[in-house]
Specification:
Blueprint (H helix, E strand, L loop, with lengths): L1 E2 L2 H12 L5 H7 L4 E4 L6 H9 L3 E4 L8 H12 L9 E5 L6 H13 L4 E5 L3 E6 L5 E4 L5 E9 L4 E7 L8 E3 L6 E5 L4 E6 L3 E7 L3
Parallel strand pairs: 1-2, 2-3, 4-5
Antiparallel strand pairs: 5-6, 6-13, 7-12, 8-11, 8-13, 9-10, 9-12
Helix pairs in contact: 1-2
C-alpha cells in the first residue's frame, strides 16, 4: 500500500533494485494494491500507470485533518475488522527523514493507533511505540540492528522507567523533555526489557549492509 507520493518512490526506485530487468516489467510486477491519500504528491504519470494496472486509487482530499499515513493505517484496520489487532504488524518504509513536520506527524500516528504494532523505518533507524500498558521484551537482531538505541517519553513525562539489557539501564528513572531522556544508549545483549508508567518511543540504529 502506498501513501500518496510514496507511489512515486515505488515507481522510480523498484527498477533500480533490478537493473538487469526491463523497467516496465518490474513496475508491473511490483505494483501497490492500493494508493490512498489526498493525492497532492503523486505524479499524474504514476497515478495513470498504476490505475491502468488495476491498483485501487482512493482519493481522500476532502479530509485535511489526518495525514496520508493515518488514512492508510485506518484503511488497513477497516479492511480486517475481525482481525485481532494485537496480531497485526505494519511496517512503514520512508516514514523518517525529510520534512520534520511530516516525521512528527508519522510519530503521532503511532500514538493514535497505539493498539497496533507499527514500525517506522528509514535507512538509519527504526522506531515503534512501547505502550505503558505492557511490560515489553525487545529481541535484538544484532546482524542488522544496533548497537545504538534510545527510549523517549512521548505524550507525557515518565515518572518511572526500568530496563534490562542496556549499557546504561534505567532503574525507576524519571524521564521528560527538559530533563533526562535516554538517547545514545547501547544494547548489550539479544533481549531488552522495558517497563514504564508512560508511553515510550523505542528507536534503534540499523546497520549499513
Amino acid at each position: 500500500m502506498c501513501a500518496d507520493g510514496g507511489a512515486n518512490r515505488v515507481y522510480d526506485d523498484m527498477p533500480l533494485l533490478l537493473p538487469h530487468e526491463n523497467a516496465v516489467d518490474v513496475r508491473k510486477r511490483y505494483k501497490p494494491d492500493v494508493i490512498k491519500g489526498d493525492m497532492d504528491s503523486i505524479r499524474r504519470d504514476v497515478l495513470e500507470f498504476y490505475a491502468s494496472m488495476g491498483t485501487q486509487i482512493i482519493n481522500e482530499s476532502e479530509d485535511q485533518d489526518t495525514t496520508d499515513l493515518h488514512k492508510c493505517i485506518a484503511y488497513i484496520c477497516d479492511s480486517a475488522p475481525n482481525l485481532d489487532k494485537s496480531n497485526l504488524c505494519i511496517l512503514v518504509a520512508g516514514a523518517l527523514g525529510g520534512r520534520f513536520d511530516h516525521e512528527i506527524g508519522n510519530i503521532n500516528v503511532l500514538c493514535r493507533f497505539s493498539n497496533i504494532r507499527i514500525t517506522l523505518i528509514s535507512d538509519d533507524c527504526l522506531i515503534h511505540l512501547l505502550p505503558r500498558t505492557h511490560r515489553h521484551e525487545i529481541h535484538i537482531q544484532s546482524s542488522v540492528e544496533g548497537p545504538h538505541c534510545g527510549l523517549i517519553p512521548i505524550g507525557m513525562p515518565s515518572g518511572s522507567t526500568t530496563t534490562t539489557g542496556l549499557q546504561w539501564d534505567l532503574a525507576e528513572t524519571e524521564m521528560r523533555f527538559g530533563g533526562l531522556i535516554s538517547t545514545s544508549n547501547i544494547v548489550k545483549g539479544e533481549k531488552i526489557t522495558v517497563q514504564s508508567d508512560s508511553d515510550l518511543l523505542w528507536t534503534i540504529s540499523i546497520k549499513k549492509m
